Amino acid sequence: MLDIVSVHPHPTWASLSADSNPRCRHVVGSTNFNGLFKPSDEYLFSLMQGYWQSAKGGPLGADTAVLDDVARGLHEFHFETFSNTHDALTLGYKC
User: Fold this and answer.
1) Is it the case that residue 24 has pLDDT exceeding 70?
2) What is the DSSP letter of 31?
3) Residue 17, pLDDT score
4) How high is the pLDDT of residue 52?
5) Mean pLDDT for the chain?
6) Which residues fall within 8 angstroms of residue 28, CB to CB, at 6 or more apart?
7) Which stretch of 17-31, 39-53, 78-92 has the lowest confidence by average pLDDT?
8) How many Å apart are CA 5 and CA 21, to the nearest integer?
9) Most exposed: 7, 22, 48, 76, by fewest CB within 10 Å?
10) Residue 27 belongs to what domain range?
């Protein structure tokens, strides 16, 4: 399981500019996730940008994506993102 707190994807609603670094402010993985997966924050943010909608608050979208583990195995994850009108909150879990 993976939790991400990031800037809002749409510059109109972003609490920081779209060029803000880090765009993912907090990436918290479970012990199992952190042991098996090492995706960069920028890679995770780009995955989420693929499905985010530009709503100011509430659900921003959901999608599945494939992440490769440290042994090059492929695993499908489901991501869901919600905006509290300040930040985007994303939950990712293995399908």
Assistant:
1) yes
2) H
3) 47
4) 86
5) 88
6) 2, 3, 4
7) 17-31
8) 13
9) 76
10) 2-94
**3-state percent breakdown (helix, strand, coil) of the chain, nearest 5:** 15, 40, 45
Q: Cβ contacts of residue 12 below 8 Å, gap of 6+?
A: 54
DSSP secondary structure code for residue 1 in this structure: -
Other C-beta atoms within 10 Å of 59: how many?
A: 11
Spatial CB neighbours of 45, under 8 Å, sequence gap ≥ 6: 6, 23, 24
9: preceding bond cis by omega (within 30 degrees): no
At 77, give phi and psi (nearest 5°).
-120, 145
How many domains are there within the chain? 1
Structure tokens at 49: 């940008």
Q: Residue 37, CB half-sphere, CA atoms under 13 Å: how many? A: 24
Joined tokens for residue 82:
């919600």
Tokens for 34? 């952190």
